[in-house]
Structure formats: C-alpha cells, structure tokens
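Per-record layout

source: Kalanchoe fedtschenkoi
name: Trichome birefringence-like N-terminal domain-containing protein
length: 267
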Amino acid sequence: MNNAVSISIIFSVALLLQIPKLSAAGGGSSKRGGAEECNLFQGIWVRDAAGDYPLYNESTCPFIQPEFNCQKNGRIDRGYLGYRWEPLGASCSLARFNASFFMSNVMRGRTMMFVGDSLSRNQWQSLLCIIHSSLPTATYTTSFQGSTTIYTFPHYENARIMLDRNVFLVDVVSEKTGRVLKLDSIEAGKRWLGADYLIFNTWHWWNRRGPSQPWDFIQVGRELVKDMDRTAAFGLALTTWAAWVESNIDPAKTLVFYQGISPSHYK
C-alpha cells in the first residue's frame, strides 16, 4: 500500500467524524453572516504534532486483510502513518476521533455503507480498526447478504457498518452473449436504500484488460459493443449513478459521499 492510499483512508475517516456538522451545514462548508467559514475539502496534509497517529495498530486489528498490512508485509518506515488532514482557514478544526462519541451519536441505530472497489474496502476496514482500537470490548456480529458484508454493533442499537463490493457501481449481468457491463442500469442500488450514510467509489477497474477484465461486452441502451473508450464509459456510468442518487435518495435522510479518483494501492 502506498502513502497516498493510507492518507486517503485517514481523510475519509476524518470527514466521517464531521457528519453531524455536515448535516447541520448542508455540505462541506459552513457560512456565517454571508462569509464562508470552513471547507473541509480544501486543505493540506501535516504531521501530527500531538503524536496521536496512527489511530490503530494495523498488525493487531482483526479487520485488516493480510495483503493490506503494510508493516507486516515488510514496510520499514512508519512516517506515512503520522499525517492528518488540516483544512484551510483559521475557523476550520477537525475534531480528534472519539470512538465512543462516534458510535453513540453518529452511528447509534444507523447504517453506514461503503460501496465500491478495494479502496472502499480499505476505508471500511480502517474505520472498523479505529473503532476497535478505542472500544476493544465492543461486541459485534458479522453477516453477509450477497456481495454485502455487514458488521452489526448490538450495544449501539444495532448500528451497522457495511461494505457492498461493487467495482463499477452500474450492473454487470451474465447473459447468453457473455458478461455485459450495462452503463445505464443500477439494479444493485436496491441494496443501498435505507442507509443513513453512503460512501461511493469507482475507477480502477475501468482500465482492467485481459483475464482480469470482469466483463465481455458493454451495453448502452440497446447498443452492445465489444469495447469503447474507457473514460467515456466511466462518465456514462457516473451519469447513471448520479441520476440514481437524485431519484432515490432523500438528502434530508441520507448523506452521500463520492470519493474521487485515487492512486492505486498495489505495486
């Protein structure tokens, strides 16, 4: 795993901590008296002077998969673990993570779902590790529904932190002709309904070719093609996804995040 991915995980968790503030402000920035106060999405990475990072030990976290355990896999340096996100602006301040507050106030009785590829899985596992590090005795159950993995925390009114592995967001359907990537179809979206927080990600699988490409044809409407410009296909899929969000998500009940394109975490 490279530095950029580790930092991406920290940033995503930092944003999740601000969910109550985002709900009140209606977005990533807040205003007072007509002047913009704080935009959480504009800032820089700084070393944490307080020494509170990393927020968990990846070697002892039960949620980290072996392939993503950088230290156990031989990485010698640890400096990349000591960064935190600092938003620009004197009025901006990201709270230190408090797992008890997070589970009791942000997550109690609620559902958070990560939807995407292995970068979404990284964020999901990292959040679980941070919670486990601060609340090691918190009980949880594990269950599966198709492509969705669910961790439920009974003590917090069955708060659920979930991952739906969906690398394209749009559908891949097995048909007589083969596996078809349908750029204008999101039947899988039925699994996302009812979540309080949705965090989406897709990109890296759009450039897969050869044996690792998980589809045989691309379909838009009635047109079926063997291949097309991948960036154009990605754009059409995101348009479909955005339309699904507009049609199915009530912003007063569900917060939606989309992670932009991130560097690969494989070397």
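summary: The radius of gyration is 19 Å. Helices lie at 3-17, 19-25, 99-106, 118-134, 230-248.
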